[in-house]
Amino acid sequence: MTDTIWGTKDVTSAKGKSDENFPVGSFLIALRLRPYVHTYYNFARVADDMVDTTELTPPEKIARLKGMAAVIRGEITAPQRADAQTAVKLRDVFLQTGVPLETATDLLEAFCMDAEKNRYESWDELLHYCKYSANPVGRFLLLLHGEAEETLAPSDALCSALQVINHLQDVAGDLKDLDRCYVPLPWLEEEGVCLDDLRLVRSKPGVRRVFNRMLDGVDVLNRNARTLPLLVRDRRMRLEAAVIVELCHILTARLRRQDPLLERVALTKADGAKALFRALRYFPAAG
Q: What CA–CA distances, in Å, run from 249 to 141, 156, 213, 246, 278?
């Protein structure tokens, strides 16, 4: 039974936090909570590796991902292997903190989608994917800090915006390496371009218009996310949220100016400093 879920090989890659587009468990998170955030990250990293590997078939990927979810829910025990044990460790975090299990199991639903689905037909379909692939991360962080229900909607908007931005950053690589494309296909068709045009070294005008249309949707999400720092009570978490809100705006603007097919569009250290400076607006001076 165990082999039918976990197989015989741990497919975890060598990727780490430095490979992410946004800071993971940054210094702004309270020291006492950082180990919980790193445990959540390690679990998500392993699940991501499970779905992105070429060494497993789609049914084998889904079996492992569903096995991870069953471990999180306490329905089965995990083998003494590094990949499966990340679910055991995260379940312990949930039991200690009271953060809902769904912030992990919803994430696994998205990875199961990736195992079977590699094309998207609409913006709504893409946002449905983001609901599971990105929004649980923000919810985990906020609920770990004991934040109120009112923070969740703007957090969902921010996380969905970040996810779409990530899809645009990685549009060429996702198609080349994973045969996966999150750009709504009918939008390409409406502009007289096709999927293969995303394999070119630079964007055709029609492709550029589709990217801008996606960024228009991100702008709406960013506007909805603006209220998040105002609602967060924990000061360190408020600053973390404010910095990420600002980074999201910076990267959205950069993706309008630069071509993600031509070059890697990414944040710089200067962007981090700029975002931190802008984030201070959420902390009015005393007196």
A: 20, 15, 16, 5, 11
Could you list the residue range(s) of the whole structural domain that residue 47 is in? 27-116
> CB within 8 A of 133, min separation 6: which ones?
107, 110, 111, 113, 114, 163
Q: Tell me the per-residue pLDDT of 183-192, one tens digit each, with 9 for 90 and over.
A: 999 999 999 9
Q: Which of 136, 169, 155 minimizes the C-alpha distance to 251? A: 169
Asked if 133 and 274 sit in the same domain, the reply is yes
CA distance linking residue 282 with residue 186, whole number of Å: 40
Q: Are 276 and 51 in contact (CB under 8 A)?
A: no
Residue 12 maps to a domain: no
Report the pLDDT averaged over residues 119-127.
98
Q: Is the CB of residue 148 less than 8 Å from the CB of residue 139?
A: no
Give Cα 85 distance to the centre of its chain: 22
pTM, entire model: 0.93
